[in-house]
Amino acid sequence: IRGGLGAQLGLMPMDTDGDQWKGCAAVWGGALTEVCWRQFSDPANFGSAFEGIRALRGKDPNLVAATGFGSFAESKRFAKGLPRDLEQRAARGDDGLRVYCEKFAHFFNREFLPRRMFEVMNAENQPQYVGFRKAAESLYQNYRAEVLCGKGEVSLIEYAYAGDDGFFTQLNVGNVIRYFSWLGVLKE
After folding, report:
1. Directed axis angle between helix 173-183 and helix 113-123, to 10°?
2. Are 33 and 63 in contact (CB under 8 A)?
3. How many of the other CB atoms lie within 10 Å of CB of 28?
4. pLDDT tens string 116-135
């Protein structure tokens, strides 16, 4: 992902780790099906470990096209060297890695990421998000004064759902993107 998309994930790879292949498998290179991908890419499953996705439990033959992709020999063949070699292959646009970059990038499109970011944090359902609404509202007042010249919706919730039917069910993704861009969290 770092080599192909320039995105750093939470764990830094050790460039010369000789055992990195143990965590590699060519799952999207023909082993898992598009039926399986639809389950992974469903917004309702975003952020879930694969074990937490109900449709992936059991032995549905429509999910797997080929087996054997998790063997040591297959993992070594897929990784083809050290982590830095894998990263360099991705940076060069290696066709064997392109599908992984494309599937990862799916979650960063304009309609998906800003919506999920705002809705998940605003819901404050997890301890790490408690306080988001209050902090985001305080920052919105600065945004409203600086960017909207004091003429925008009175609250962040009203701004985020501007044009909605009044029940706050239809997120205005464009407004959320502009707000998050002003914060420096997203690029417009």
Report:
1. 80
2. yes
3. 19
4. 999 999 999 889 999 999 99
Alpha carbon of 136 to those of 35, 119, 129, 155, 157: distances in Å?
38, 12, 11, 10, 10
Taking the C-alpha atoms of residue 36 and residue 55, their distance in angstroms, rounded to an integer, is 9
Phi, psi of 7 (to 5 degrees): -105, 130
Residue with tokens 């010249």: 149
User: Which token pair is 4?
Assistant: 């192909």
pTM summary value? 0.74
- How far is Cα 59 from Cα 46, in angstroms, rounded to an integer? 22
Question: d(Cα 63, Cα 50) in Å, to the nearest integer?
Answer: 13
Side-chain half-sphere of 142: how many Cα atoms within 13 Å? Answer: 8
